Amino acid sequence: MFPQRRLFTFPFLGRGRMDVRMNQGHLLLAVTLIFCNSQLLVVANSWWSLAMNPIQRPEMYIIGAQPLCSQLTGLSQGQRKLCQLYQDHMVYIGEGAKTGIKECQYQFRQRRWNCSTVDNTSVFGRVMQIGSRETAFTYAISAAGVVNAVSRACREGELSTCGCSRAARPKDLPRDWLWGGCGDNVNYGYRFAREFVDAREREKNYPRGSVEHARTLMNVQNNEAGRMAVYNLANVACKCHGVSGSCSLKTCWLQLADFRRVGEFLKEKYDSAAAMRISRRGKLELVNNRFNPPTSEDLVYIDPSPDYCLRNETTGSLGTQDRLCNKTSEGMDGCELMCCGRGYDQFKTYKHERCHCKFHWCCYVKCKRCTSLVDQFVCK
Ligand SMILES: *[C@@H]1O[C@H](CO)[C@@H](O)[C@H](O)[C@H]1NC(C)=O
Ligand SMILES: *[C@@H]1O[C@H](CO)[C@@H](O)[C@H](O)[C@H]1NC(C)=O
Ligand SMILES: *[C@@H]1O[C@H](CO)[C@@H](O)[C@H](O)[C@H]1NC(C)=O
Ligand SMILES: *[C@@H]1O[C@H](CO)[C@@H](O)[C@H](O)[C@H]1NC(C)=O
């Protein structure tokens, strides 16, 4: 459970209406989409676009000045308010989203759905309008990215409202070790990310039990799972002091886990994600109640995944045509599964790599550059 160590309170944001403040281009697009399919409204535009629009350095803006926040696309009303109050945080939210997207692409590089981004505004394209497992992962990893980036920015002294971690000394830390080096402020990062990322969901006011309500609950649950992953994987790190490496004195602090670990952890959560549906009382419940109900650390989804094999404008699937595959692998990266039985084309390409590496005393490694002709396979 998340320990309630309250350091800061964020301004209360009332329940607003769904954000309809889009620029004209998006509005046109959104209107077109509404006519095609009412469900497509869900994430036509999102704070994820912060990962795409480079945000200028915050020093350029006087705190409280409006231009930055009104220029950023993809923010909901509540997020825009937070932007005005915490302008210096916006760069890190953008960075966090970018880290999340990169990690998503790494974790799914060998899958039919490869987490590819489509354009600047909808970022992941229309596949996010389906409440699938993949969507669940995307929400979790981007929320995780924000916790990560904001926690670190606090430690580095980049933000005006937070500093080093003030987490309590762990009970099991040996008594003669010092606690309190400047740690990543994951407590603050968690809280800020909760306010910011969930703002867009909290503003929605869908009828209880509706499909849109189910999707909102799904998003909130997956955002939380992502934040909890970063929070729980943060650990104690220590450094030795004392006479010439005697390590008689140790200083310890709270440190974020490497983001790759967060990605791997959430990928496992993706594999074990729970299929849910909305109950008559307006809560998410398991489709198959022989399984254990998900905890706040688990991912949930409400829709089956679309077919990622073929390109489909309606679902937003890019298809796997022209994707690289591995001829000998029997896994998802193998040509059989990746190409969905359509077969593959083979071509030769030059591969450059480091080779004949030698260790030189002391201490470096010298390599040669080798070029070889290798076979590559791409899906038809
Ligand atoms: C995306 O944003 C970048 C940088 O802001 C811009 O150069 C590029 O043209 C944009 N692409 C699209 C498809 O809008
Ligand atoms: C695209 O996906 C939709 C929804 O699954 C399906 O009804 C439609 O037939 C698909 N279109 C094509 C061209 O495959
Ligand atoms: C993901 O797959 C799409 C569709 O095949 C491809 O265009 C894109 O380059 C891939 N993206 C990454 C990051 O591998
Ligand atoms: C292809 O898959 C095989 C079996 O899983 C593996 O040993 C090999 O390294 C893979 N090749 C590439 C280029 O990834």
TrEMBL record:
BP term (GO), one: cell fate commitment
Places the protein is found: Secreted, Extracellular space, Extracellular matrix
Keywords: Developmental protein, Disulfide bond, Extracellular matrix, Glycoprotein, Lipoprotein, Secreted, Wnt signaling pathway
CDD domains: Wnt_Wnt5b (cd19348)
One cellular component (GO) term of this entry: extracellular space
Domain of life according to the entry: Eukaryota
A GO MF label: frizzled binding
Keyword Phosphoprotein belongs to the record: no
UniProt entry tagged with the keyword NADP: no
Gene3D superfamilies: 3.30.2460.20
SMART domains in UniProt: WNT1 (SM00097)
Principal subcellular localisation of the protein: secreted
Family assignment from sequence similarity: Belongs to the Wnt family.
Function of the molecule: Ligand for members of the frizzled family of seven transmembrane receptors.
PANTHER family in the cross-refs: PROTEIN WNT-5B, WNT RELATED
Record protein name field: Protein Wnt
Record lineage: Eukaryota, Metazoa, Chordata, Craniata, Vertebrata
